[in-house]
């Protein structure tokens, strides 16, 4: 599994290089008045700084272009546009969704714990493979759930509240309905960072039994939390449910007043819903998690890790330390950019409110990177997933789709689309907050600079060739 | 010194911001004076926006030719 993810990563990186070359080629043609013959057969490579600057430039230009949309009526129309698609009061459908979720959990636990137990006395259960490409637990969790379902949550709509088997189980149990004395946003943030850390340092994508153990542990914690807090546990404290909820706000489909409604992309991010520093931290953690995941798989990281461990830092502490420091840096940069942006915007609104209103726009960027990382991975695994689900206990020979090289270019488009959507959302929020349109534009100067910087960092990371993280 | 909205608890650094806010958020209950102030502020904002659009256009041209030259020189 990890291998196929690596392979996909390589396709992504080489397509990135191909795109740079294409852009370079255009530049060259313009510069040499189309003297194709002279350049044929000579490789063109864009210097890294120029490639990164182009990425940042695209984001900056999209900010300038969106700032030219100054019609308040139009912006309000786009934000408030809703079209009723249907009703969600289909008990049968909800029940079916819950059953599918529970069935999925049973499959994951069974095929995870039984993987490789050929000594098992029941013949039917002794044939579950450990091969990641044939094991239903691994394919369902990484391919079906974390790639497929997560993508559907921001591209279509969030189905996790219904599918979530732990939420269904909690619904059957009595609840103490206690309020925890801690901020839900911070609990979810720490939980999310912990999950990212576990995912990076352990072979969860290769070892089915370990994965089933992790799912069990997470399930026990979640059900306990649900019993203590009640259903609010899933909207306040549970990191996974909150990731899906956050992604779901990017989606065009939403549920309002019991009806399924279509809205314009990003409209859910303009509506105020972040109301504490913990919530802001959670959004930033989601964004930083994607970056961290890519960062630790680069050669400069490997060099850095070896140097730091050479200085005497135990490798065990290195990964969580960098995860925490990087998160603090991301959060700090965001809050600082809002605080100084407030001065430029010339407003009496306080920084906390501005930070809360602009934070959701970052989710569009996170969704853009997620789809860029996982769409190819998901399509690649669809046949293997179908094969494993057709007969989880004894799947046949697995095969995967070969993803064509040009597909990486499509992924790049998603990365850029995510940033452009984020800039557009921030533009809309600025118009809602400030009476003067010049003020609205000014309020985003620093935020846009931060987004450009972030684009360049991410492009730098994804353009490095894959190198296995050391000390794991 | 801030300028308060008479109908809600928002405050503004500049008078023109408050006048614009009144026109956008409390359109139905404006006095004649407030309406006139809003219209004046709106016209001034339009002038500022025109200037801003020229600047934005200039910036786009600069970025475009900047990248064109950067690619031409470095390849």
Automatic annotation (TrEMBL), chain A:
As given in the record, the signal peptide range reads none
Membrane-crossing ranges are: 47-71, 92-116, 136-157, 210-229, 316-337, 358-379, 399-424, 445-463
Record keyword Transmembrane present: yes
Which keywords does the record carry? Membrane, Transmembrane, Transmembrane helix
Q: What is the protein's given name?
A: Uncharacterized protein
Lineage at the top is:
Archaea, Methanobacteriati, Methanobacteriota, Stenosarchaea group, Halobacteria
From TrEMBL, chain B:
User: Pfam families in the record, alphabetically?
Assistant: DUF7410
Q: Does the keyword Glycoprotein apply?
A: no
InterPro entries, per the entry: DUF7410, Znf_C2H2_type
Which regions span the lipid bilayer?
Answer: 54-73
User: What keywords tag this UniProt record?
Assistant: Membrane, Transmembrane, Transmembrane helix
Query: Where do the C2H2-type domain residues begin and end?
Result: 3-31
| Protein name according to UniProt | C2H2-type zinc finger protein
Q: What is the phylogenetic placement of the source species in the record?
A: Archaea, Methanobacteriati, Methanobacteriota, Stenosarchaea group, Halobacteria
